[in-house]
Amino acid sequence: MHRLLAALAVLAALAGCAAPPAPRPMPPAPEASVLAPEIRAQADAAVRRFASVVAAVEPVAERECRALRTQGSCDFQIVVDDRPGQPANAFQTLDRRGRPVIAFTIPLIAMVENEDELAFIMSHEAAHHLLGHIDQARVHAETGALVLGRLVTLSGGNADSVRSAEEVGALLGARRFSKEFELEADALGTVLTARAGYDPLRGARFFERLPDPGNRFLGTHPPNAARLDVVRRVAATL
Q: N or C: fewer beta carbons within 10 Å in the chain?
Protein backbone atom coordinates (compact mmCIF):
# COMPACT_ATOMS: atom_id res chain seq x y z
CA MET A 1 0.00 0.00 0.00
CA HIS A 2 2.89 2.36 0.72
CA ARG A 3 3.92 2.43 -2.94
CA LEU A 4 0.36 3.22 -3.99
CA LEU A 5 0.09 6.09 -1.52
CA ALA A 6 3.42 7.55 -2.53
CA ALA A 7 2.47 7.40 -6.20
CA LEU A 8 -0.92 8.99 -5.60
CA ALA A 9 0.59 11.79 -3.55
CA VAL A 10 3.27 12.56 -6.09
CA LEU A 11 0.76 12.53 -8.94
CA ALA A 12 -1.47 14.91 -7.00
CA ALA A 13 1.43 17.24 -6.27
CA LEU A 14 2.43 17.23 -9.91
CA ALA A 15 -0.89 18.40 -11.34
CA GLY A 16 0.15 20.60 -14.22
CA CYS A 17 0.38 24.29 -13.48
CA ALA A 18 -0.47 25.44 -16.98
CA ALA A 19 -3.36 24.00 -18.94
CA PRO A 20 -4.73 26.31 -21.62
CA PRO A 21 -7.74 25.43 -23.79
CA ALA A 22 -7.39 22.80 -26.47
CA PRO A 23 -6.02 24.34 -29.65
CA ARG A 24 -8.43 25.08 -32.46
CA PRO A 25 -8.24 22.91 -35.58
CA MET A 26 -5.54 24.17 -37.89
CA PRO A 27 -6.48 25.35 -41.38
CA PRO A 28 -5.00 23.58 -44.38
CA ALA A 29 -1.25 24.20 -44.49
CA PRO A 30 0.19 26.32 -47.29
CA GLU A 31 3.01 25.04 -49.41
CA ALA A 32 5.84 23.64 -47.28
CA SER A 33 8.34 25.82 -49.11
CA VAL A 34 6.48 28.93 -47.90
CA LEU A 35 6.05 27.87 -44.26
CA ALA A 36 9.34 26.10 -43.63
CA PRO A 37 11.56 29.20 -43.13
CA GLU A 38 8.99 30.88 -40.85
CA ILE A 39 8.47 27.76 -38.75
CA ARG A 40 12.21 27.20 -38.53
CA ALA A 41 12.75 30.78 -37.40
CA GLN A 42 10.03 30.51 -34.75
CA ALA A 43 11.45 27.25 -33.45
CA ASP A 44 14.96 28.68 -33.26
CA ALA A 45 13.66 31.73 -31.39
CA ALA A 46 11.76 29.54 -28.91
CA VAL A 47 14.88 27.45 -28.24
CA ARG A 48 17.00 30.55 -27.65
CA ARG A 49 14.36 32.05 -25.36
CA PHE A 50 14.08 28.86 -23.32
CA ALA A 51 17.86 28.51 -22.96
CA SER A 52 18.20 32.15 -21.94
CA VAL A 53 15.56 31.88 -19.23
CA VAL A 54 16.99 28.62 -17.89
CA ALA A 55 20.42 30.24 -17.63
CA ALA A 56 18.95 33.12 -15.59
CA VAL A 57 16.42 31.32 -13.39
CA GLU A 58 18.23 28.09 -12.53
CA PRO A 59 21.11 29.63 -10.49
CA VAL A 60 18.67 31.86 -8.60
CA ALA A 61 16.42 28.90 -7.77
CA GLU A 62 19.39 26.83 -6.61
CA ARG A 63 20.78 29.64 -4.46
CA GLU A 64 17.43 30.31 -2.81
CA CYS A 65 16.86 26.59 -2.37
CA ARG A 66 20.11 26.20 -0.43
CA ALA A 67 19.13 29.16 1.75
CA LEU A 68 15.62 27.87 2.44
CA ARG A 69 15.88 24.08 2.59
CA THR A 70 17.92 22.18 5.15
CA GLN A 71 17.37 18.81 3.48
CA GLY A 72 17.08 17.51 -0.05
CA SER A 73 18.81 18.33 -3.29
CA CYS A 74 18.92 21.83 -4.77
CA ASP A 75 20.55 20.71 -8.02
CA PHE A 76 17.75 21.56 -10.45
CA GLN A 77 17.37 19.84 -13.78
CA ILE A 78 15.19 21.77 -16.23
CA VAL A 79 14.08 19.64 -19.15
CA VAL A 80 11.78 19.58 -22.16
CA ASP A 81 9.09 16.91 -22.18
CA ASP A 82 8.99 16.07 -25.88
CA ARG A 83 6.61 13.12 -25.71
CA PRO A 84 4.11 13.37 -28.56
CA GLY A 85 0.56 14.43 -27.82
CA GLN A 86 1.31 16.26 -24.58
CA PRO A 87 -0.78 19.37 -23.77
CA ALA A 88 0.76 22.73 -22.92
CA ASN A 89 1.96 22.08 -19.38
CA ALA A 90 4.76 22.50 -16.85
CA PHE A 91 5.34 20.48 -13.70
CA GLN A 92 7.87 19.79 -10.97
CA THR A 93 8.90 16.32 -9.88
CA LEU A 94 11.85 14.46 -8.39
CA ASP A 95 14.09 11.93 -10.09
CA ARG A 96 15.06 8.64 -8.46
CA ARG A 97 17.90 10.30 -6.55
CA GLY A 98 15.66 13.07 -5.22
CA ARG A 99 16.99 15.69 -7.63
CA PRO A 100 14.35 18.32 -8.47
CA VAL A 101 13.19 18.28 -12.08
CA ILE A 102 11.17 20.98 -13.83
CA ALA A 103 9.64 19.84 -17.10
CA PHE A 104 8.06 21.90 -19.88
CA THR A 105 6.11 20.42 -22.73
CA ILE A 106 6.84 21.72 -26.21
CA PRO A 107 3.34 23.23 -26.67
CA LEU A 108 3.83 25.34 -23.54
CA ILE A 109 7.21 26.60 -24.68
CA ALA A 110 5.61 27.55 -27.99
CA MET A 111 2.63 29.36 -26.47
CA VAL A 112 4.35 31.70 -23.98
CA GLU A 113 4.48 35.21 -25.36
CA ASN A 114 7.70 36.47 -23.78
CA GLU A 115 10.60 35.58 -21.51
CA ASP A 116 8.85 37.04 -18.45
CA GLU A 117 6.04 34.50 -18.75
CA LEU A 118 8.47 31.64 -19.20
CA ALA A 119 10.54 32.83 -16.24
CA PHE A 120 7.48 33.14 -14.02
CA ILE A 121 6.27 29.63 -14.84
CA MET A 122 9.76 28.24 -14.27
CA SER A 123 10.09 30.10 -10.97
CA HIS A 124 6.64 28.92 -9.86
CA GLU A 125 7.63 25.30 -10.45
CA ALA A 126 10.95 25.81 -8.66
CA ALA A 127 9.05 27.30 -5.72
CA HIS A 128 7.09 24.06 -5.33
CA HIS A 129 10.38 22.29 -4.58
CA LEU A 130 11.73 25.02 -2.32
CA LEU A 131 8.54 24.82 -0.26
CA GLY A 132 8.58 21.01 -0.08
CA HIS A 133 5.14 20.58 -1.58
CA ILE A 134 5.68 17.05 -2.92
CA ASP A 135 6.73 15.81 0.52
CA GLN A 136 3.78 17.57 2.15
CA ALA A 137 1.35 16.13 -0.39
CA ARG A 138 2.70 12.67 0.28
CA VAL A 139 2.14 13.06 4.03
CA HIS A 140 -1.40 14.34 3.50
CA ALA A 141 -2.13 11.43 1.16
CA GLU A 142 -0.86 8.86 3.61
CA THR A 143 -2.90 10.43 6.42
CA GLY A 144 -6.06 10.53 4.29
CA ALA A 145 -5.64 6.91 3.26
CA LEU A 146 -5.06 5.80 6.84
CA VAL A 147 -8.07 7.66 8.24
CA LEU A 148 -10.57 6.64 5.57
CA GLY A 149 -9.28 3.07 5.43
CA ARG A 150 -9.58 2.77 9.21
CA LEU A 151 -13.14 4.07 9.16
CA VAL A 152 -14.19 1.53 6.54
CA THR A 153 -12.43 -1.23 8.48
CA LEU A 154 -14.27 -0.31 11.68
CA SER A 155 -17.57 -0.29 9.81
CA GLY A 156 -16.99 -3.88 8.73
CA GLY A 157 -15.78 -3.33 5.18
CA ASN A 158 -14.05 -6.12 3.30
CA ALA A 159 -10.51 -5.96 1.89
CA ASP A 160 -11.63 -4.51 -1.46
CA SER A 161 -13.71 -1.76 0.10
CA VAL A 162 -10.88 -0.87 2.49
CA ARG A 163 -8.45 -0.68 -0.42
CA SER A 164 -10.83 1.54 -2.38
CA ALA A 165 -11.30 3.76 0.67
CA GLU A 166 -7.54 4.10 1.05
CA GLU A 167 -7.21 5.18 -2.58
CA VAL A 168 -9.97 7.77 -2.21
CA GLY A 169 -8.52 8.96 1.09
CA ALA A 170 -5.08 9.38 -0.50
CA LEU A 171 -6.47 11.50 -3.31
CA LEU A 172 -8.58 13.61 -0.96
CA GLY A 173 -5.68 14.10 1.41
CA ALA A 174 -3.28 15.13 -1.33
CA ARG A 175 -5.76 17.58 -2.83
CA ARG A 176 -6.82 19.14 0.44
CA PHE A 177 -4.09 21.75 0.36
CA SER A 178 -3.33 21.87 -3.38
CA LYS A 179 -4.83 25.34 -3.86
CA GLU A 180 -2.81 26.70 -0.97
CA PHE A 181 0.31 25.12 -2.47
CA GLU A 182 -0.34 26.88 -5.78
CA LEU A 183 -0.76 30.27 -4.10
CA GLU A 184 2.37 29.73 -2.02
CA ALA A 185 4.31 28.83 -5.17
CA ASP A 186 2.92 31.93 -6.92
CA ALA A 187 4.14 34.12 -4.06
CA LEU A 188 7.65 32.67 -3.88
CA GLY A 189 7.76 32.35 -7.68
CA THR A 190 7.15 36.10 -7.90
CA VAL A 191 10.25 36.71 -5.78
CA LEU A 192 12.38 34.26 -7.78
CA THR A 193 11.25 35.78 -11.07
CA ALA A 194 12.25 39.27 -9.94
CA ARG A 195 15.59 38.10 -8.57
CA ALA A 196 16.34 36.43 -11.91
CA GLY A 197 15.87 39.79 -13.62
CA TYR A 198 12.38 39.38 -15.06
CA ASP A 199 9.07 41.16 -14.51
CA PRO A 200 6.71 38.92 -12.49
CA LEU A 201 3.69 41.10 -13.20
CA ARG A 202 4.22 40.78 -16.93
CA GLY A 203 4.94 37.08 -16.48
CA ALA A 204 1.77 36.43 -14.51
CA ARG A 205 -0.35 37.77 -17.36
CA PHE A 206 -0.05 34.21 -18.61
CA PHE A 207 -2.93 33.44 -16.23
CA GLU A 208 -5.18 35.73 -18.24
CA ARG A 209 -5.06 33.26 -21.13
CA LEU A 210 -5.90 30.20 -19.03
CA PRO A 211 -9.40 28.87 -18.37
CA ASP A 212 -10.49 29.99 -14.90
CA PRO A 213 -10.84 26.89 -12.69
CA GLY A 214 -13.07 28.82 -10.28
CA ASN A 215 -13.18 27.85 -6.63
CA ARG A 216 -14.21 24.22 -6.98
CA PHE A 217 -14.28 21.98 -3.91
CA LEU A 218 -11.10 19.91 -3.86
CA GLY A 219 -9.97 21.51 -7.12
CA THR A 220 -6.25 21.45 -7.80
CA HIS A 221 -5.89 25.15 -8.67
CA PRO A 222 -7.32 28.36 -7.19
CA PRO A 223 -9.19 30.97 -9.27
CA ASN A 224 -6.97 32.94 -11.64
CA ALA A 225 -7.99 36.22 -9.99
CA ALA A 226 -6.69 34.97 -6.63
CA ARG A 227 -3.38 34.01 -8.19
CA LEU A 228 -2.97 37.36 -9.91
CA ASP A 229 -3.78 39.13 -6.66
CA VAL A 230 -1.02 37.23 -4.85
CA VAL A 231 1.50 38.17 -7.52
CA ARG A 232 0.53 41.84 -7.40
CA ARG A 233 0.73 41.99 -3.60
CA VAL A 234 4.11 40.29 -3.43
CA ALA A 235 5.53 42.29 -6.35
CA ALA A 236 4.54 45.52 -4.59
CA THR A 237 6.89 44.63 -1.72
CA LEU A 238 9.95 43.96 -3.91
A: C
| Alpha carbons 71 and 132: distance in angstroms, whole number | 10
Tell me which residue of 196, 206, 193, 197 sits closest to 234, measured CA to CA. 193
Rounded Cα distance, 121 and 232, in Å? 15
Q: Which of 70-74, 126-130, 234-238 bottoms out in mean pLDDT, i.e. has the lowest?
A: 70-74
Task: Write the single-letter amino acid at 140.
Answer: H
Calpha distance 222→232 (Å, rounded) = 16
Helices 159-175 and 133-154, packing angle to 10 deg: 150
With 0.85 as the threshold, say if the pTM is over it: no
CA distances from 102 to 34, 65, 230 (A): 35, 14, 22
Half-sphere exposure of 160 (CA within 13 A, CB side): 0
